[in-house]
Design a protein that fits this description.
By secondary structure, the protein is an alpha/beta fold. Helices cover about 40% and strands about 15% of the residues. It has six helices and five strands; from the N terminus they run βαβαβαβαβαα. It has helices at about 15-25, 45-55, 70-80, 90-100, 115-130, 135-140, and strands spanning about 5-10, 30-35, 65-70, 85-90, 105-110. The protein has a five-stranded parallel β-sheet, with helices on both faces. β1 (about 5-10), α1 (about 15-25) and β2 form a beta-alpha-beta unit. The chain is globular and about 45 Å long. The chain starts with 5 loop residues before the first strand and ends in a 16-residue tail after the last helix. About 35% of the residues are buried.
Length: about 160
Amino acid sequence: MEIKTVGIACDHAGYALKKFVIEYLENHQIPFKDYGTYSDMSCDYPDFAHALGNGIANGDVYPGIGICGSGEGMAITLNKHKGVRAALVWSPEIAQLTRQHNDANVIVLPGRFIDNKTAEKALDEFFKTQFEGGRHERRVQKLSLIHISEPTRHAQI
């Protein structure tokens, strides 16, 4: 994956893991832009997810990292932005598959359900894994609402 500047956003439930992820990025000399939140005080995840989603859609950052308690709210919100393919990841294997098959450009981590070691391994896979293209390219192109058409049947799955 080509890394421009990684965008990162979280809510209060993801704040502790975000601090670890920022350390990871600094240790790997990966440039990043922090869209908040900046404490563990209760806040609304959509505010920060939308900021990150806009950053990706505008080309200011690429790829992205979202973190909230379950990861679900952040992923749902991010996926409303044009060009964002946010994937909820709880293991290195899921990080690898979502890059290979879905060309995910945002990894969303569930801050309340994974530890730092798992997050580190998932980030390693996310950043090093390339999109396979091929049959997956057709599928990824169908993710956008403007490409919705009748289902197609293909011999090759």
